Amino acid sequence: MSKRPTLKELEQKISELTEALQRERADAINVRRRTEEDKAKLGDFYKVIILRELLPAIDNLERAIMHVPKDLEDHDYVKGIQGVAKQFEQCFKQLGVERIKTIGERFDPHLHEAVHMEDTGGEHEIISEELQTGYKINDEVIRHALVKVRTEKK
């Protein structure tokens, strides 16, 4: 005859199985969380690839808008082109893409690429002009902003 487990032994076994189940549930939650994080990172990765391809065309669109002749500023065609540029801005916003702040900001080599430096004897490097817009998603830089920098005392 086999010995029947005692109540204490059964309670111990239930406790062990409960702990094992809780560990398994915690592991499953962690796997789901990591999977979601990986999906989000992969999504951002593909966004960056596509955006890098689109940026030269967007740059040219913005340059064209900046150089509209005065006599055409109120023309419907120009307004339409400006509307397209606004649509790109809205799409970028929906995708979580931000323009990197430049003029008047302190130079940050993680965000900016200086192509000209004017040393006026100051202690702080301040951006004086933006030559090309930079973009980022969260903390990941898609493209550094090309800027001119001058030193200032503050």
Key structural traits:
single chain; 154 residues; alpha+beta; Hemagglutinin Ectodomain, Chain B; Nucleotide Exchange Factor Grpe, Chain A, domain 2; 2 domains; three-stranded antiparallel β-sheet; three-stranded mixed β-sheet
Q: Give the N-terminus to C-terminus distance in angstroms.
A: 91 Å
How are helices and strands ordered from N to C?
HHEEEEEE
Q: What fraction of the residues are assigned to beta strands by DSSP?
A: 15-25%
Major beta sheet, strand line-up: 1-4-5
The global form is elongated
Tally of separate helices: 2
Please provide the count of β strands.
6
Helix and strand content put the structural class at: alpha+beta
Named at the architecture level, the CATH assignment of the largest domain is Alpha-Beta Complex
| CATH topology heading of the largest domain | Hemagglutinin Ectodomain, Chain B
Average residue pLDDT: 92
Q: Characterize the largest beta sheet: strand count, sense, and whether it forms a barrel.
A: 3 strands, antiparallel
Task: Bin the helical content.
Answer: 40-55%
Low-confidence stretches: none
Radius of gyration, whole Å: 28 Å
Task: Quickly count the domains.
Answer: 2
Briefly, what CATH class of the largest domain? Answer: Alpha Beta
